[in-house]
TrEMBL record:
It comes from Candidatus Kaiserbacteria bacterium RIFCSPHIGHO2_01_FULL_53_31. One of its GO terms (biological process) is translation. The keyword Ribonucleoprotein applies. It comes from the Bacteria. This is Large ribosomal subunit protein uL29. The gene is rpmC.
Amino acid sequence: MARKTSMKEKGDAELSKLLAETREQLRTERFAAAGARPKDSNAPRKLRTTVAQILTEQHVRTKTPVTTK
């Protein structure tokens, strides 16, 4: 089984890219579900959770000062 990656391990640019991709997937899932029964009915919920995790990590990074030694 693959190791689950944390949002804290990703860089700022990688988080931004992942956020854009996840929002696009959510948009396509939402419109695909309008026409027919989706294969995975929990997919939008999982995608919204991922978006929330990314936004939370970005917010934490902007609020905490970076300390250097």
